[in-house]
Amino acid sequence: MYIVAIAWIYVVLMMALAEAISPQGSVLGALVTFTMYGVLPLAIVLYIMGAPMRRRARRAAEAAGSAAAPDGSGHAAGDAVAPERKEP
């Protein structure tokens, strides 16, 4: 997945560079090209493609959290054995 993203950024960088050094182009146009054709769409695609990985990580964190507290209350366990009471 990341090799395609790296290749896309490389192509867009070359497009922006060609626009910046051309006689009719400008540096501002190159920055707009790089942002609109490269960074913005790539950020959206990587966010969408990373959703299953984030979901898996969230489920694993929830499973690890519930394993630590067997009763699920989140409170510390009380005394397992009641203290011995002395007769008056």
TrEMBL record:
UniProt feature, compositional bias: Low complexity: 62-80
Keywords, comma-separated and alphabetical: Membrane, Transmembrane, Transmembrane helix
Protein name (database record): Transmembrane protein
Membrane-spanning intervals of the chain: 30-49
Region (Disordered), start-end ranges: 62-88
